[in-house]
């Protein structure tokens, strides 16, 4: 009889201990799930006196501290890399811009072989400048992916100013521009990223358009819609490849990568929460952008 009572009491004690262990494990699991799902420096807590559970909690906290330290080190390295990349691109951009200006000036007063040599130098400098801008955009996307500078601004005015900046170059190439911009489309977003989107797309038109181009901007029930359309000299055979950053229309290095510019645009648009769609039809090339959730004010007419 005494043995039965002893065994019963022992079983109750073991069950109680097991219940406490399961409760503490469940609590630790809950803490870990919360820490993993949220950006926090929290740690696992336990009120048990059981040594095995205390050691488990200490081991979990040790790993969490290591993970947090690695994350902090990674963020520091990313900031240093971004700063280095920013300094590098700016250090290259200034002398490059001066060099392009000098070569253009010399080219105006040159003839024969000297002019041909200077033209080749100018083409090479323009190529460096082309890729330098995309390197700057790449760095901009890295910086903006976590910290957008959200302000309220007039998107219609921003697009009009960028078009005006390209007016002389488009006019020199005798490109007929049809512009349809709804006035006073006010949005809450990152103005710098929108400027880079417009600059990339207009630069793409300047390089590849032949005679006609069309730019449209409107607000359709709170959805911002943009369209950049141009005619190209050559037929576009594979429109699905144009967002591939390594895609080029031919095997010539001098033609540069069409996909590089459009992949940058795609990254910028995605960073702003928008979508990009490409349409090709023989020599017609259209880039369509849509943006939602920009807290826009709808415009009434198109000018």
UniProtKB/TrEMBL annotation:
| Top-level division of the source organism's lineage | Bacteria
Chief localisation class: membrane
Q: Which GO terms describe its cellular component?
A: plasma membrane
Q: Name one GO molecular function term.
A: phosphoprotein phosphatase activity
| Catalysed conversion reaction | ATP + protein L-histidine = ADP + protein N-phospho-L-histidine
Q: Which Pfam families match?
A: HATPase_c (PF02518), HisKA (PF00512)
- Which InterPro entries does the record match to this protein? BphY/WalK/GraS-like, HATPase_C_sf, HATPase_dom, His_kinase_dom, HisK_dim/P_dom, HisK_dim/P_sf, Sig_transdc_His_kin/Pase_MprB
Q: Which residues form the Histidine kinase domain?
A: 87-295
Q: Which residues form a coiled coil?
A: 53-91
Biological process according to GO: cellular response to phosphate starvation
> Which controlled-vocabulary keywords does the entry list?
Coiled coil, Kinase, Phosphoprotein, Transferase, Two-component regulatory system
Where is this gene product found? Membrane
Gene3D superfamilies per record: 1.10.287.130, Histidine kinase-like ATPase, C-terminal domain (3.30.565.10)
> Which SUPFAM superfamilies did the record assign?
ATPase domain of HSP90 chaperone/DNA topoisomerase II/histidine kinase (SSF55874), Homodimeric domain of signal transducing histidine kinase (SSF47384)
What name appears for this protein in its UniProt entry?
histidine kinase
């Amino acid at each position: 009889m005494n043995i039965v009572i002893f065994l019963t009491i022992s079983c109750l004690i073991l069950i109680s201990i097991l219940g406490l262990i399961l409760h503490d494990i469940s609590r630790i699991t809950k803490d870990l799930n919360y820490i993993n799902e949220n950006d926090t420096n929290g740690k696992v807590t336990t009120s048990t006196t059981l040594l095995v559970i205390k050691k488990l909690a200490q081991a979990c906290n040790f790993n969490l501290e290591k993970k947090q330290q690695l994350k902090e080190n990674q963020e520091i390295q990313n900031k240093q890399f971004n700063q280095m990349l920013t300094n590098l691109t700016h250090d290259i951009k200034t002398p490059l811009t001066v060099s392009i200006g000098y070569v253009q000036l010399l080219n105006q007063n040159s003839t024969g072989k000297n002019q041909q040599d200077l033209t080749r130098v100018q083409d090479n400098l323009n190529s460096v400048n082309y890729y330098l801008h995309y390197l700057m955009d790449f760095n901009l996307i890295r910086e903006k992916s976590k910290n957008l500078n959200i302000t309220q601004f007039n998107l219609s005015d921003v697009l009009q100013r960028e078009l005006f900046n390209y007016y002389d170059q488009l006019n020199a190439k005798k490109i007929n521009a049809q512009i349809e911009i709804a006035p006073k489309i006010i949005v809450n977003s990152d103005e710098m990223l929108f400027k880079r989107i417009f600059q990339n797309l207009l630069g793409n038109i300047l390089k590849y358009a032949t005679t006609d181009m069309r730019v449209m901007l409107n607000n359709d029930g709170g959805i911002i819609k943009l369209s950049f359309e141009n005619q190209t000299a050559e037929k576009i055979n594979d429109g699905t490849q144009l967002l591939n950053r390594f895609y080029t229309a031919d095997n010539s290095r001098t033609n540069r990568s069409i996909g590089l510019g459009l992949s940058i645009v795609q990254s910028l648009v995605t960073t702003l929460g928008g979508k990009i769609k490409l349409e090709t039809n023989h020599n017609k090339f259209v880039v369509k952008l849509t943006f939602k959730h920009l807290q826009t004010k709808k415009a009434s007419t198109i000018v």
